[in-house]
DNA sequence: CAGAGAGGAA
DNA sequence: GAAACTCCTCTCTG
């Protein structure tokens, strides 16, 4: 305790010396303050996580302030503010809209189901609030106004503490190097006394660098009703002259002697950015990262503007106004559901900054898409867009331009080809105005973290539909990219017709006795078990039934199966096209094209390739037969596949999302975990235990016990063969495939399938037939099955039609 | 264009 | 709770 006290006293003394209100910092050291905050405010979070599993409701009643008396007019106020920072809001309250607009700025949405929304105040959310222009006082006053109960002292103290220290230091980029900058040298001295920060310092001088401070201007977001946007922002600025939008300016007023026009800085190593940002936040001096692009004379301007027809939707505007509020570009993350126009947000941001932009995507395919979207929505000269992928190593010729590439390209640790190395040098050697990170939720992966160090960018914009990971790395994004600036409310968007309305259902399928016996016999959550529950004949029939039903309604249907074995079984048995990782590129294209244009092809089967990496045409119905454990992201991503349906504005139009679940298996538990995110977004999952009319059908697959037994046998043969094959390979081909790794397994599986069909004999006709087509497909040559032939000819027809018509 | 090698997701 | 496992990407090489 004594050393701590000493430290605290020192800090307080320093604070006094530096002319701050020592009350602001309390009697606590930075570390203590942080610990204190964490203690009080992360409890709720932990509780929620642990308790939620046992009981859906009890966590709500822990740690609350139920003993607080309601204000007399509580009924007209929309929300409760809990002393731990949790906020519960009624969505039916007249003040809801107004309160929601405010809450989204200052708190994290946790759950937005139909009647009640839950938010929580966090350090990050409050930092973001301040950086967007809310003052500590305004936050407290407005919360008090909306709250049915008087704000607790904890919450008030938390808000004050979190917001008071904000905006005093910035992280900036000069000549591709990172600097910590402040108007007040004492702040920097204070940061440098922190061992972590000090260890990240790059320049060896003792003193600080001094420069003249830049001016602040006003900007409009392009694509919004330009003028209107500009005046609005100007008005906001005028209406709240002392709002911390001008934190820097107001600080300057405080020590308004001769230091007025000076900023001070020291340099840090680029690779330590994350660490420094994190540390500064921990010690209560969060760094703002803003790019004053209007006054950037060093980097060339890029000639880019939105085309006149590009109209920004209101929520896109809202999101962008967060990013650009004080005429600077602020780093952060924008969360929009798929189909809500993330790309356009990115492009608009690029048009706002008008400097060189680098776009990072997860796949080479979306690189191409980004490029074409840029050309579609903006007047950019196509020569100024360069794609850097395995295929094209172009860089732009001018001084400024847009470079679109993949994460893998930037982070590749292996030796590069000559061209690739040259392009990388180009990327590393220059300053980027804006870095757009598409699918930003992948960035926290160890490898991808590097991109934020390797690419020197003044501002970073992260885009994603699902800010979710099943590991605990999602918080790293706060330091790697920035805080979450905006998160759209899915339900709201679908009510307004920006994305489709979706009916979600979980279909419970009873296991057949044989399948269940076999399921029980194999070890829990083994691959074989997965397949058994995915290929449960009852599920298969339910799937077939639903496909029939929806094809008759004129829906376009996508069926997802994570398990490739099951996928192929389903698709071949039902004579549908399917795509998985091993499907060659041109075949993928052909199938997707047919799905899109050919009225005969209304259903396709996809492995998890369809989650992210395919540019799927519009579909209106989605059936999930097997999935990856409890991945909420996958569920959300899949749902997203039907949100962009063009028919969404038709009267009473609904898209459908079915999860087929085998009863009494692991799938049940996984399904409910998977749905958690969507439920929080306000989707209601209906449970269907019986499909009307299914039992009357005799034409469905696996109708007879004989067929079902055969299916089960195939599964067992295939799976047990897998196990066997591993052994055999270990012996006979051990040396040959010794270093083969994954490739070995793939090759092995194919070969074994071939042998098996011979082994299994004549009574397994269907099996042989399947295997042939499967192999031919995998090899991409040999005899095509009837369906593929048909598909080919229909492609030809479609092409003829297109040629004839156009 | 196949195969190798490396990485991610969960 | 960790670790295996599968599936799928990417890039570079021959």
TrEMBL record:
Gene Ontology cellular-component annotations: nucleotide-excision repair factor 3 complex; transcription factor TFIIH holo complex; transcription preinitiation complex
Keywords: ATP-binding, DNA damage, DNA repair, DNA-binding, Helicase, Hydrolase, Isomerase, Nucleotide-binding, Nucleus
Region (Disordered) residue spans: 1-25
Ranges for domain Helicase C-terminal: 541-695
GO terms, biological process: nucleotide-excision repair; transcription initiation at RNA polymerase II promoter
Top-level EC class as recorded in UniProt: isomerase
EC number from the UniProt entry: 5.6.2.4
Keyword presence, Hydrolase: yes
Catalysis: reaction(s): Couples ATP hydrolysis with the unwinding of duplex DNA by translocating in the 3'-5' direction; ATP + H2O = ADP + phosphate + H(+)
Top-rank taxon, per record: Eukaryota
Keyword presence, Zinc: no
Annotated InterPro entries: ATP-dep_DNA_Helicase, ERCC3_RAD25_C, Helicase/UvrB_N, Helicase_ATP-bd, Helicase_C-like, P-loop_NTPase, XPB/Ssl2, XPB/Ssl2_N
Every Helicase ATP-binding domain range: 323-485
Subcellular locations according to the entry: Nucleus
GO molecular function: 3'-5' DNA helicase activity; ATP binding; DNA binding; hydrolase activity
SMART domains the record matches: DEXDc, HELICc
Regions of compositional bias (Acidic residues) in chain numbering: 15-24
Similarity comment text for this entry: Belongs to the helicase family. RAD25/XPB subfamily.
Name of the featured protein: DNA 3'-5' helicase
Organism, scientific name: Periconia macrospinosa
């Amino acid at each position: 305790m004594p050393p701590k006290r000493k430290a605290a006293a020192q800090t307080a003394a320093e604070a006094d010396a530096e002319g701050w209100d020592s009350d602001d910092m309390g009697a606590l050291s930075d570390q203590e303050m942080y610990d204190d905050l964490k203690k009080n405010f992360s409890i709720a979070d932990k509780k929620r996580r642990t308790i939620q599993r046992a009981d859906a409701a009890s966590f709500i009643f822990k740690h609350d302030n139920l003993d607080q008396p309601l204000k007399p007019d509580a009924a007209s106020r929309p929300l409760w503010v809990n002393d731990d920072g949790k906020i519960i809001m009624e969505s039916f309250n007249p003040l809801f809209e107004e309160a929601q607009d405010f809450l989204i700025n200052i708190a994290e949405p946790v759950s937005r189901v139909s009647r009640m929304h839950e938010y929580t105040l966090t350090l990050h959310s409050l930092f973001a609030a301040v950086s967007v222009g809310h003052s500590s006082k305004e936050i407290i006053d407005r919360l008090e106004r909306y709250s049915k109960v008087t704000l607790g002292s904890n919450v008030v103290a938390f808000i004050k503490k979190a917001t008071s220290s904000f905006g005093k230091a910035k992280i900036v980029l000069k000549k591709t190097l990172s600097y910590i900058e402040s108007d007040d040298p004492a702040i920097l001295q204070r940061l440098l006394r922190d061992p972590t920060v000090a260890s990240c310092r790059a320049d060896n001088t003792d003193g600080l660098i001094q420069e003249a401070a830049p001016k602040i201007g006003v900007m409009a977001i392009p694509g919004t009703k330009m003028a209107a946007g500009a005046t609005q922002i100007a008005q906001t600025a005028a209406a709240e002259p002392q709002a911390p939008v001008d934190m820097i300016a107001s600080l300057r007023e405080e020590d308004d002697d001769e230091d007025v026009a000076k900023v001070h800085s020291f340099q840090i190593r680029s690779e330590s950015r994350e660490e420094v940002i994190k540390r500064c936040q921990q010690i209560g001096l969060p760094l703002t990262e803003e790019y004053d692009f209007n006054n950037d004379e060093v980097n060339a301007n890029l000639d880019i503007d939105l085309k006149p027809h590009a109209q920004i939707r209101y929520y896109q505007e809202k999101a962008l106004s967060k990013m650009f509020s004080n005429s600077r570009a602020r780093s952060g993350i924008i969360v929009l559901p798929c189909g809500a126009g993330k790309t356009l947000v990115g492009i608009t941001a690029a048009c706002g900054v008008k400097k060189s932009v680098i776009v990072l995507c997860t796949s080479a395919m979306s690189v191409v898409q980004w490029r074409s979207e840029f050309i579609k929505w903006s007047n950019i000269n196509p020569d100024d867009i360069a794609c850097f992928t395995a295929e094209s190593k172009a860089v732009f010729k001018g001084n400024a331009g847009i470079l679109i590439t993949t994460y893998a390209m930037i982070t590749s640790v292996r030796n590069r080809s000559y061209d690739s190395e040259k392009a990388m040098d180009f990327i590393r050697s220059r300053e980027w105005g804006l870095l757009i990170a598409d699918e930003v939720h992948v960035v926290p992966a160890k490898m991808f973290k590097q991109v934020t160090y390797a690419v020197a960018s003044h501002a970073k914009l992260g885009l994603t539909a699902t800010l979710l990971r099943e590991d605990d790395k999602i918080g790293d994004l706060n330091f790697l990219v920035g805080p979450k600036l905006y998160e759209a409310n899915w339900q709201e968007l679908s009510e307004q017709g920006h994305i489709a309305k979706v009916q979600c259902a979980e279909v419970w399928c009873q296991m057949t006795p044989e399948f269940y016996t076999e399921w029980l016999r194999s070890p829990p959550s083994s691959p074989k078990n997965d397949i058994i529950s995915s290929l449960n004949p009852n599920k298969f029939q339910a799937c077939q039934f639903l496909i029939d039903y929806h094809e008759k309604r004129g829906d376009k249907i996508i069926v997802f199966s994570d398990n490739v074995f099951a996928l192929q079984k389903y698709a071949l048995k039902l004579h549908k096209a399917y795509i998985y990782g091993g499907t060659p590129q041109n075949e993928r294209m052909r199938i997707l094209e047919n799905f899109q244009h050919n009225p005969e092809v209304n259903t396709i089967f996809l492995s998890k390739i369809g989650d992210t990496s395919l540019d799927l045409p519009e579909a209106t119905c989605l059936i999930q037969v097997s999935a990856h454990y409890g991945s909420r992201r996958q569920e959300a991503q899949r749902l997203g596949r039907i949100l962009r349906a063009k028919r969404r504005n038709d009267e009473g139009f609904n898209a459908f999302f079915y999860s087929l679940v085998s009863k009494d298996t692991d799938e049940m538990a996984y399904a409910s975990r998977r749905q958690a995110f969507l439920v929080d977004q306000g989707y209601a999952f209906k449970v269907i235990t019986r499909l009307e009319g299914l039992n009357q059908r005799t034409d469905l697959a696996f109708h007879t016990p004989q067929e079902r037994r055969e299916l089960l046998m195939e599964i067992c043969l295939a799976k047990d063969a897998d196990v066997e094959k591993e052994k055999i390979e270990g012996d006979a081909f051990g040396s040959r495939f010794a270093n083969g790794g994954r490739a070995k397994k793939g090759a092995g599986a194919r070969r074994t399938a071939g042998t098996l069909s011979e082994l299994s004999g004549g009574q397994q006709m269907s099996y042989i037939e399947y295997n042939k087509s499967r192999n031919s497909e995998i090899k991409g040559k040999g005899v095509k099955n009837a369906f593929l032939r048909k598909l080919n000819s229909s492609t030809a027809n479609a092409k003829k039609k297109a040629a004839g018509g156009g």
